[in-house]
Structure formats: C-alpha cells, structure tokens
Structure prediction request, 576 residues.
Amino acid sequence: MAWLPTLIKACYFLAALLFILGLKRMSSPRTARGGIVWAGVGMLLAVLATFALPDIHNRALILVAVLIGVSAAWWSGRRVAMTAMPQMVALYNGMGGGAAAAIGAAELIGYANSSITLLDGGKFTADGAAPGTAQLALAVLGALIGAVSFSGSLIAFAKLQGWLDRRFVFPGQRVINMLVLAAAVAIGVALVCGQLSLSLIAAFFVLALLFGLMMTLPIGGADMPVVISLYNAFTGLAVAFEGFVLQNEAMIIAGTVVGAAGTLLTQLMAKAMNRSIGNVLFGNFGASGAVAQEIGGSQKPIEANDAAVMMAYAERVVIVPGYGMAVAQAQHKVWEFAQLLIARGVKVKFAIHPVAGRMPGHMNVLLAEAGVPYDLIADMEDINPEFPATDVALVIGANDVVNPLAKTDPASPIYGMPILDVSAAKHVIVVKRGKGTGFAGIENALFYADNARMLYGDGQAAAGQLVAELKTLDT
Amino acid sequence: MIDGFLALYIFMLAAFTGYEIIARVPVILHTPLMSGSNFVHGIVLVGAMVALGHAETSFEIAIGFLGVLLGAGNAAGGYVVTERMLEMFKSSKPAGGKEAK
Prediction:
C-alpha cells in the first residue's frame, strides 16, 4: 500500500487547489455559484482522504461526530431566514475556531502525557519524538487565536440574535482585558518552554476563552460585521497554525488564504464605516464623554395616502432600504410598490449604504431575493450627488446610515461615518416602527428635519398601505 | 516533511494568494465571500479528525470528539449558508430582467 500516502497527499493538493479556485470564482457575481461547489468538492476530497489515513484510530467515533456535526449544521443552515445569515456565519465561524483550539489542546495534552520529567528538571518524550519549539509555539498560538475566535464569535452570534442586547462596559475594562491577554500569553510562553502540565494547559484555555468573551462584550451591535469578519480571519490563521503542527498541507494553505482574505475583507468593511479596526475593537461606541448636540424640532407624521400621492406624482424617487425593512420582510412589498411607481413613469432607484443590513452586501442579497434588478440599485458614491435632484427619498428601515449627525456632530459616536445624503432631497419620508433610536442607540437628526415626514408602522404593513393607496389612484 | 523555511514560503505565498483573490471584489459579494471563506476554513475538520484518530486517553478522545463535532459544523454550516446566499445571485439576474417589464 505504498501508493496510499501519495494518493492522500494528492487529494490534499487537489483540495487546496479547489479551495483557491473556488474562492476566486466566488469573487465575481457571474461565477460565484459554481465557486462554492468547487470548494465543496475540495472539502469532500480532503475529508475522505483523511479517513483513509493508515494511522487513524477511533474511526467509528470520528464518523459519529462528523455525522452529528454535519446534520445539525445542515439542518440549522437550511431553515434560518436570510436576515439571520450574519449571525449564522458567526456561529459556524466560532465552531471552526473551537475546532482549531481543540486540535491545539489535543496536541498539547498528548505532548504532556508522553513527556517524562527527569530528576534534574530536563525533559524528554517517551516515544523519542520531542516536539520542536516551533511546533509547540505554533500549537499554542493556534490554540490561543482559535479559542478567542470561538468565544468571541459566540458572543457576536448572541448579540446579533438579540439574546444580548446590552453592551457590558465598566471602568478599566481595557486594562483588565489586556491583563487577561497578557496572562494567557505568559502561560502560553511557559507551555512552549516545556512546562507542559495539564493544569497550566487548562488555565491557558480558560484565559484565552475569557479574553475572547471580554473583548467582544463591550462592542456594539453595529460594529459586529467587522468583528465577525475579523474572527473569520482569526479562525483561518488558527487553522493554518494547527496545520503546521499536524503537517497537513491542505490546512496550511486553506487557513492562510482565509486568514489573508479575511484580514483584507475586514479592512474593507471597516473602511466602509470610516473606522479603523483598532477603533472598532477598543474605541467603544458611546465611550467618549462629550455631550451630544441637542436636536431641535419635532417629528412630523404623515399618512400613507399622502405619502403615496407625493411619490406617485414625483419625478425621481430614491428608496433607501435598511435592515429594518428586511426584518419586517417588507422587501417584496417595497419592490411591488417600486414597480407600480415605475409603471407610472417615476424614476425609481434603490440606494444602498456600504454597511446597510448587517454586513457589506447583505442588503444587495436581500433585494436580490425580492427580485430587484441590479441596474436599479445604486451605491452610496453614485447616488449621493443625485439627492438634490430627487423629489422624494423613501427611507424604510434604515436609521444610522442616513443620520446627518455623522456629518455635523463631532461628539456623536458615528461622527465621520459616510452617510446617504437623503436630507438633500426635496422631501424625505421615513417609514419607522416607533420613535425609538436605531441599532447603534443614537438619536437621528434626520427625523426632526423640516423636509422629513414620518410614516409610522411596521415596514411590511406600511409598504402594503402604500401599494394599496397607489392602486386606488389608478382607478 | 515540511521544514521551517519551506513552511514560511508556503505561508507567504498562500497569504498573497488570499489577498489577491479578495482585492478586486465588488461590495455586493462581501457577505457571500466572508461566508465562503468561512466554509473554506472548515478544513479544520480534517485536522480534528487526525487529532481524534491519534487520541489515546479518554480525555484526549473527548477533546478530539468535540473538535470533530465543531469542525464538521463549521464545514457543513458554512457550505449551506454560502450556497443559499449565492443561489440568489443565480435567480435574480434572469428573474430581474423579466420583472422589470
């Protein structure tokens, strides 16, 4: 069976190639769908090859664990709503980080069990294969990053799922977090230097998990996409490091590619929000003590029939959808309304902020689900100059991305974030459930502007009313 | 096997590959790509299988089992979610053309 190891290596090579080609195809809309299938084939190959490894024991246990993991994830991934995709990505990413940490733990414990301490304090391993310092260091580093990604992603999941809607902020938090990290790193260094005892290994993992937890707790929900993307890159790196430890080429390449791609993706996302990654992680929303500007005026309501008439006789209407629209499942109604307007000769466009929804591109996916064609969807850079020539801007379910305070109030936590300039339009109609603040918990000056009218109600109900009112105009 | 410098070369080249793949991606694909790369690091499953396959004590087996469970969840969940997101890109183009009337 001398050919078997070669065949397995060839499968790993093919898997790595398919991952890279698959990701490449996923980076263009035309070929994106095939890309995931290519990567899937690569994964299947790699898993089957691993089953065939000659020195593997516990095959039955492995099969049971794979079957349970796959079926649970498959079932949950199938039935989750499109709006909940970001937290599912966070959850699955956390699982990957946890798996990387588990590999690190298994390796470290294996080393600890097989090493015998000599009387003079020196060590040698029983089977003669002493782990090199580099190997130990990579196992520890991968475990640290994986564990942080695991607990951090779970917190991100809980926050986006709405299970944890508070930010936990207390004085000196940053210092304590850094101390926890420093302690974890110190124990990690001790492990690398050969102090491989089970209690130290346990302490190391407890501290690493705790750090991920505490690092993510103070971060506001609006910043979560950047954080999830960062943890995605973390998991990739952790997988690559553990791949070096296990001498598994597929893991090394796939993990490194994801680590690099994820880092760049994180930067792109942070840039879209005009924030640095450091700012997202450590400069928590609302942490500045500055006094926010007073907002004068009042919110002025409008009825659905007036709003419908206003838009029916407008020349240009720009619809600004936000996550609130998707949560209310209103995108189909909104698209129906837009089609009615288009049939009346109104020029309709959808304006999408780079971070509309929960992740960059999330809103495009949600609109695509409703059947809105690409040519009606405009980016922020393209649409902002058009707002002064726009008769009505219909803001539905969006809040922070249209808040003028981002431009005018240096004390505002979102100051500096580029926004959709809807207040430049002649009229603004805001569909909103109630008078509360948005996801980031910030008051929105747009709602008090002179040219803004509030259409209160659930996104779907409001859009349905608008459709009905438009239809009565035609008869 | 892989020695230190060879490993560094692999690491460097793979990192550049990852960077280049993402460098010119339209914003609309950021979410599916994040999800797709999330699936790709599900390859951690392979490592977890090796860890469980080499486990000897029951404690090691328990940790390996947990690792395989989590890794399998990462791979399967990542695939399903990405596939569902990308499905929309397929259907939206022809459907969008038709519905524009």
In short: Chain A touches chain B through 119 residues (CB under 8 Å).
